[in-house]
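INFO batch 0412 | record 1 of 1 | parsing
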Amino acid sequence: MRCTATFLTALATAATLAAAPSLAETLLAIHAVAPGDFVHFGQVALTTPQNQGDIANLGIVVGRDAVAVIDTGGSVAVGEGLRAAVRKLTSKPIRFVINTHEHPDHVFGNAAFAQAGTTFVGSARLLRSLAEHAPFYLHSFIPQLGAAAIAQVRIIPPTLLVRDAMTLDLGGRKVLLSAWPPAHSDCDLTVLDEKTGTLFAGDLVVSQQVPAVDGSVSGWLSVLDRLAKLPALRVVPGDGTTIGAWPQALDPDRRYLETLVTDAERAVDAGIPLQQALGQIGASERGRWDLFDAYNPRNATIAFSEAEWR
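INFO prediction complete | emitting tokens
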């Protein structure tokens, strides 16, 4: 599908604003990670109407002059709760909303921040990815989130695009944005607060919840090697509640992905068909991760396909 700003704008404008539950009055729980850096931990769960898509970790960086929000949650209600939590922290303007990739639990709350003076930021590849995937997400998430909540969602494309790396200045605090080749998704972006060494990694780094491959297993492993060279001290994962020391926090994700590759290559070399191999690829990791059965079969399928074409 050809990506155009016109398509995305039309898609955003066509969304119907219907009444839906809001978290704004109760706020979202916000935890300090380092001076000026905060995180809201989403639930380790699949999206349901009950949790309103509050399943991703969301970041806040407060500078002297302005604020950057990193991902907005899996519904407009979550986004409203995050915005209210920011206002509780500071009255400084929210200058940037940075989306780490296109998955609904990270972008469906964007409408809560659509206001004058706020710039939406993402990987240059995010523009095309949103155009290609948004119609499917808006349809397929009706059972998961509820029709009223989906009716509120606006797909807001980034207008500030990161093709390789970019630095944003919040006033006495610079954040380094890095775009990565296909790994977790095809449009991953990380955010490093250079003042504190805090890395907001999106779903390129997860804890507790099994990694979910929507890009490339081998690509993700390659990105982890490059990611480890960033001058971070700690990492906020995209999912899970552990703030990890850097770069040791990468080890569990790397082990899991390497296991997928090893098991898939072994199955392909042995002539084992995909349906039989699915139960074997990654099986030794089952007890180490939450939501394993929800995501490992898809991960195994991608790993098997890559092994066939290596």
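INFO post-check: Confidence is low (pLDDT under 50) at residues 1-22.
INFO record closed
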